[in-house]
Structures are given as C-alpha cells and as structure tokens.
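EI: anyone free to look at a 340-residue chain?
SC: sure, send it
EI:
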Amino acid sequence: MTPPVLTFFNNKGGVGKTSLIYHLAWMFANLHKRVVIVDLDPQANLTAAFLDEDQIEVIWNSSIAGSTIYQCVKPLVGVGDIAEPVLQTIATDLYLLPGDVSLSGYEDELSKEWPNSMGDNNLYRPMRILSSFWQVMQMAADKVQADIILVDIGPNLGAINRSVLIATDYVVIPLGADLFSLQGLRNLGPTLRSWKSLWQKRLNNWQDSREVSQYPDFRLPVGKMKPIGYLCQQPIMRLGRPVMAYDKWIKRIPAVYREAVLGEAAPIAMAQADDPYCLATIKHYRSLIPMAQEHRKPIFALTPADGAIGSHANAAQDAWKDFKQLAIKIAKQIHMPLDR
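SC: here you go
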C-alpha cells in the first residue's frame, strides 16, 4: 500500500501555499508521522524554506544523480531511466526531496509525450515519463517508509502540474480573500476533472496495449485527485480598504467551491465558518513570519531565545494549536491514522 500523496494547489499565487506546507510538514512530523516533502515548483521556494542558500548551491552544483527532483527525472530526456532520489534529512521523521529551477526545462518533454501516450505502439516511454513524478515519490517514500507525501507546485495549469496532479491522491486548495483566488477556483475544478478523465483514458489505453505484458512490474498512479477542502488565508487589513471588501469574496467561496470543484449545486447561503469543506482560516502571523524564517523553524517552534516573548510567545503557542488542529482534520480526511 502506497502512502497518500497530498498536493496543495491553486493556479493563483500569493495565497501562502508554501508556508502552509512547510508548517504542516513540521506538524505531521511532530505528530510522529514520517513525512516526505517533494518540491515540484520550479521556483523552489519550499526548498529555500528548509535549506539555506549555501546548502542549496552545493546540491544544485553537485550534479549527483537524484539530488533534486529534476536530477531524478533528467535521465528520461536522454536514454536513461529515473534516478534514485537522494533525500535531505531535515529532522526526525521529516525528509525533503529538493526542488530545482532547472525543472522548468522538463515541461517540453511532458507536453510532447502527452499525445504520444494515446498511440497504438511504443507506449512504455510516454507512460514512464508522464508518471515519472509519481515514480520518484514512491521511491522516496519507500526509502524512509513514509506515512505521507506532501507536494508543492507552482501556480499554473501547465504540463508539469498536470503530471503532478496525475500522481496526487488528495488536493487541498489554498485561497485568499480576493477576486483572483475566486477566479482561480473556478478554473481549477474543471481542469482537475478534465485531467482525471484524460489520464483514465491513457490508463485504459495502456491496459489494452500489447506492451502491458512486457512490463508486469510497471505501476502507474490512478490519478485520484480528490479535493478534500480549501483553506482561506486571513486577509491583511489595509488602510483605505474596509473589511466588507474582503468579506464580499469570502462569502462567495463556499458556493464557488461546490459549483466549480465538486460539480454540486451551491447552497442558498452558507457562512465559511459553517462550511465543512473549509479546513481552516490561516491566520496572518505578521512579524512572526520573518522571525521564523531567520531561525529556519516553524512559527510554533519559536522560543524566547529566538525573540518570541510576550505577545509573540502567545501567538507561537496559538499557532501550535491551530496547525495541530488542521493536521488532525486533514489526516481524518485522507484516512491517515495519527496513533503511531
């Protein structure tokens, strides 16, 4: 049985996605779940949250096979095969497969093989390439006997993200309180359904091919892509913009989520606080964010020695409670026990 792959995705950026994954990864590890983080955003911001620039430079310049997600799949562009991933140990039960700015160069290969995977012959190579991210994730999870795989991707609907979503079991959608997040939500639902349907056709095509008997050990992801809910980032109140300007968009999220993502009828009226699909409202921790980044640790791990005193110390304690509650809720949604 493979560990669940949980991807955080919205094709609108700036919604706190990377910070969210970073903190949840630490929280799951604190709850004694073994976590593999895979940074599949070519900007590699999540990698920069876990490792300092000197460490990243060494990894990127080493050219060691499997040292980054791109180094794992790069051999497929030539005549080689997927390289064994080299994980960075961040802490007990917490492992990272670093991102790589060179990953954007893999987009063309994925785009080219998408139509080839619906051909009549020579299907193994395109199916191997299209499922390469999933193959790497499973290899990484096997190395450390992971309980869960957390994935970060960029804010777009390109070929890289399509292959990541193919590899995904569950999707969480981070949102902001603005028109752009709402429009991203409208785009995302139909795209997920389309990718899921198109991948199923490719799986059926592979199963009906003559090649399937030649590769009895070749496993493929099912492309589950099940949305389990959304997270709304608490807006930063700005002078000159009243609270009602944010509330207008927040109130529309429950209906748009049901219509666009789930394909269900929208409720007549539902407050976000009453919406079971709203996993949490993520607070804006203001000055705690740069403090945590400076010490390269999650907000809830800050101590007085780091400068978290007075109200900062209280906010750090509140962050522990908030992220623990969110981790427990997500674990329940993906049927992952927290009793190890």
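EI: The first helix runs from residue 17 to 30.
SC: 👍
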